Every structure is written in structure tokens, then in C-alpha cells.
């Protein structure tokens, strides 16, 4: 699978959209507009699903697979960090003992605020 939108070939979700962004620091980054994507080891949402954080709604715009080795500083900025290294250190601090393998694939969930 590549970085392209592959709506018709997405595997079943492994979790629910309400578990997509749960850490307080990340929730605040989303609410402040500093985080517009999250990467997970499973697929948590379908395109078009709505995530609600503190009474604010966000629509999932894209879902695609990406390897950790493909990450750029621009991707890190989507996550609310300045560099891939900052993002990497944050992830590794949440998951002690987890290796950072360039070939490891994750699911990218990009989202945007729903204007009401």
C-alpha cells in the first residue's frame, strides 16, 4: 500500500474513532490547530467519520498507510512536532522498549475541524 488514498482497499478498522486521539497533550494540540494527523499501528477511522474532542468536532479527511522511514519533518509538523526526531522521541517515550524500524508501517489519519 502506498501514501495514496485507497478508499476501496482499506482493511477493517482495528479500533474506534473515539480512541484516535486520547492523550491530553495531543487533544490540546488538536484543539489549538497544531496537530492535524495522528499515526497509529491500526486503522481507527474511516474517511468521513467524526471525532469529538471536548465538544469540538473533527472530520477524518484521509486514511492511508505509511512506513516510519517515509516520515519527513512536514509529517512531524502534522503531529504537532518540529522534527521527525522530536516526534520519534515522543512516541518512544509512550512505548518503552518499542523499536523504531524504518520499514514498520503505521496508519495515518488526517483530520480537520468541522465548521458549524
TrEMBL record:
It holds the Pfam family ASCH. SUPFAM superfamilies: PUA domain-like. InterPro entries: ASCH_domain, PUA-like_sf. It comes from the Bacteria. Residues 20-115 form the ASCH domain. This is ASCH domain-containing protein.
Amino acid at each position: 500500500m502506498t501514501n495514496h488514498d485507497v478508499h476501496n482497499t482499506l482493511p477493517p478498522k482495528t479500533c474506534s474513532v473515539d480512541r484516535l486521539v486520547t492523550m491530553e497533550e495531543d487533544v490540546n494540540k488538536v484543539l489549538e490547530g497544531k496537530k492535524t494527523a495522528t499515526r497509529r499501528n491500526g486503522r481507527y477511522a474511516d474517511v468521513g467519520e467524526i471525532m469529538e474532542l471536548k465538544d469540538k468536532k473533527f472530520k477524518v479527511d484521509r486514511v492511508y498507510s505509511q512506513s516510519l522511514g517515509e516520515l519527513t519533518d512536514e509529517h512531524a509538523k502534522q503531529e504537532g512536532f518540529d522534527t521527525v526526531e522530536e516526534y520519534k522521541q515522543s512516541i518512544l517515550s509512550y512505548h518503552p522498549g518499542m523499536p523504531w524500524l524504518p520499514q514498520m508501517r503505521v496508519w495515518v489519519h488526517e483530520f480537520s475541524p468541522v465548521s458549524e
